[in-house]
Design brief:
single chain, 152 residues, mainly alpha, Ferritin, 71% helix
């Protein structure tokens, strides 16, 4: 990336990734017969759509509404469990694991990107994007913990 344009290029990449994630979650919603899993996929698609709007507004107007501040911690459930590669007919548990892994991939992407960027503003944006993806992952991990790992 050219240092002068890397910020805009990063925003374009982030918008593309959010659009692709939204499309994936919509497609996965159509592949499951589990109403809980379908509802979760719709919620995730809606979140990704909000991120597209935030990023687009930020790129076009410099507006940062809806962005979260601060550092968050995670349960790391996704690091210890295996997710399916295919969600055809999957139930809620497999769908949650798949979504957790998907969010982790986004976190990893933005974390790697941070190291390759040159400008402080682009690095800060990358850290913000990774943090937003981490918030999704935590939400999913807490739900997974409550539903499948909590006390009987």
């Amino acid at each position: 990336m050219n240092a002068g344009n890397e910020y805009i290029e990063l925003l374009d990449i982030a918008i593309y990734k959010e659009v692709a994630s939204e499309a994936l979650y919509v497609a996965l919603k159509g592949r499951t017969t589990d109403t809980g899993a379908a509802g979760l996929m719709q919620d995730l698609a809606n979140e990704e759509k909000k991120h597209v709007q935030w990023l687009t507004d930020f790129k076009e107007k410099g507006t940062k509404t809806g962005w979260h501040n601060g550092i968050v911690s995670e349960l790391k459930i996704g690091e210890y469990l295996t997710a399916p590669d295919n969600l055809e007919g999957a139930g809620l548990q497999d769908t949650l694991l798949f979504a957790i892994k998907r969010e982790q991939q986004s976190i990893d992407f933005y974390s790697r990107m941070t190291g390759s960027l040159r400008t402080r503003s682009a690095k800060a944006l990358c850290r913000k994007l990774a943090n937003e993806e981490l918030r999704h992952k935590i939400r999913l991990e807490v739900l997974y913990d409550d539903m499948f790992l909590g006390e009987d």
